[in-house]
Design a protein that fits this description.
Elements: H1 2-48, H2 57-71, H3 80-89, H4 98-112, H5 119-136, H6 141-160, H7 163-172, E1 175-176, H8 184-200, H9 218-251, H10 256-273, H11 283-290, H12 299-312, H13 320-338, H14 342-358, H15 361-372, H16 377-390, E2 401-402, E3 410-411, E4 424-425, H17 430-450
Parallel strand pairs: 1-2
Antiparallel strand pairs: 3-4
Helix pairs in contact: 1-4, 1-5, 1-6, 1-8, 2-4, 2-10, 3-5, 4-5, 5-6, 6-7, 6-8, 7-8, 7-15, 9-12, 9-13, 9-14, 9-16, 10-12, 11-13, 12-13, 13-14, 14-15, 14-16, 15-16
Length: 451
């Protein structure tokens, strides 16, 4: 009895400790990130008031790369990846200089028209503030990690106005196939606190309930399954285009700020040839897709190119908002090909590609309910899980740690960064596998003969 009482007392003290800490860090991050969002909204409004502001992109990416290189190299790229890397490899220690540099570099990139998002900087700012607070409180590595994860959750929760999905995202994004349950409570508290602080300070959020959801039929369910497969393929495409951009940038042996000039010039040329709709956040295109409006069918193919150039050639920002663009555009295109309701499948695509590209099917499914209403949630969840599985062992966040394989027929090494994973086929049923391979070879020969 005494032992049980001691255990319950310790757990009660631990709960109260993290309720206080998570509430405090959520409030601080809510105020700080709200200030950033208001400053960003003002800067983007000024930039958009002049239609040819994007012509300054070479100078903007040059300045962004210059600040990052000499003031805070950890502020490079899309923010969340650096936070994941810091948690797994550096004891969740984030240099204080990262916060102001990330803020300034993202403002410069987005206000001029760089194709990035705002959630990565918010997560990195939140994590940076949490790391600073952990340092002041003399926390050990375990508690420091928990507080920094609370910072990620708070940043995500308030940037999109989705406190539950944002809180889950901050916990789920660290591992592929695993969740740190011990951080769930403080993450929820930090996310909800930050969300309410930002709402009270005047941040307006985007909600778009889907009004047309078909009645369940076997045919419609099969279409949702096909959509999930398509969204998984779109996730793979996005990840690979980001990798190609990183490889091209790495082979370009010049001073980093000069890469900003090169990348900015390429973006200007692409915008003049294709369209300026692929620059900036692209939320107008996302809203058009969710409203059922027609957009170019190839929009989901071009946005990753603009984003890859921006992030790999000096720009700073997040990657989730471009994922929303790609997903909603892909869903709209899929619906037009299949003769379906474009708004319904744009909503599924928006969360489906997020689930696949970021390996966060649970957070993406909850996001569907928070943004689009409960009617679409069951179908969106199916699409999210299928997209997550289809993407395989890839991610827009290479520092994610793999905690489970996505198939028993694939041999992978658990506990390593996702970028180091090499999946190998290990058949569970050799007789069935032999027959499948035989039929695939036969069909291949027939196809070549017919062609």
């Amino acid at each position: 009895m005494q032992r049980r009482l001691a255990e319950e007392t310790i757990l009660f003290i631990s709960i109260m400790k993290w309720v206080v800490l998570a509430t405090g860090v959520g409030a601080v991050i809510g105020v700080a990130v709200t200030g950033f969002l208001k400053l960003l909204a003002w800067g983007m409004a000024v930039g958009q008031s002049h239609p040819y502001t994007f012509l300054l992109l070479p100078a903007a990416l040059f300045l962004s790369a210059l600040m990052v290189k000499y003031l805070a190299p950890d502020a490079q790229g899309h923010g969340t990846e650096k936070v994941i890397e810091a948690i797994h490899k550096h004891g969740a220690r984030i240099k204080p200089m990262v916060v102001p540099v990330k803020l300034a570099a993202t403002l410069v990139t987005l206000c001029i028209g760089g194709s990035v998002g705002k959630e990565g900087p918010c997560a990195q700012i939140g994590a940076g503030i949490a790391s600073i607070l952990a340092g002041w409180l003399k926390f050990g590595e375990h508690d420091r990690k928990k507080l920094v994860i609370c910072g990620i959750s708070a940043g995500f929760a308030l940037v999109f106005g989705t406190p539950i999905a944002g809180s889950i995202f901050g916990v789920e994004v660290l591992f592929v196939g695993g969740i740190l349950y011990e951080v769930l409570l403080p993450s929820f508290i930090a996310g909800i606190t930050a969300y309410h602080i930002s709402s009270a300070l005047g941040i307006a959020y985007f909600y778009h309930p889907v009004k047309v959801v078909p009645v369940f039929t076997e045919g419609f369910f099969f279409q949702v399954v096909l959509a999930g497969v398509f969204f998984g393929l779109c996730s793979i495409m996005l990840i690979e285009i980001l990798k190609v951009g990183a490889n091209v940038s790495g082979r370009l042996r010049i001073w980093e700020p000069l890469k900003g000039l090169v990348g900015g010039s390429a973006l200007v040329l692409l915008a003049l040839v294709c369209s300026a709709r692929y620059l900036g956040l692209g939320l107008d295109t996302v809203e058009a897709c969710l409203s059922g409006s027609r957009i170019p069918w190839y929009a989901f193919l071009l946005k990753p190119v603009f984003t890859s150039i921006t992030l790999n050639f000096g720009g700073s920002g997040g990657v989730v908002t471009p994922i929303f663009f790609v997903g909603s555009a892909a869903g709209s295109t899929f619906a037009s090909w299949m003769g379906l309701n474009p708004a319904t499948f744009a909503a599924m695509g928006m969360v489906g590609v997020l689930a696949g590209a970021a390996n966060t099917p649970i957070a993406a499914s909850i996001l569907a309910m928070e943004l689009f209403g409960p009617a679409i949630a069951p179908y969106a969840t199916v699409a999210c899980v299928i997209s997550f599985l289809m993407t395989g062992h890839r991610s827009v966040y290479p520092s994610q740690v793999l905690s489970t394989a996505k198939s028993e027929s694939l041999r992978v090494e658990l506990g390593k960064d996702i970028e180091q994973i090499e999946a190998r086929f290990t058949p569970r049923n050799k007789g069935l596998t032999t027959r499948v391979l035989w039929w695939s070879r036969l069909l291949g020969r027939l196809f070549r003969h017919i062609r």
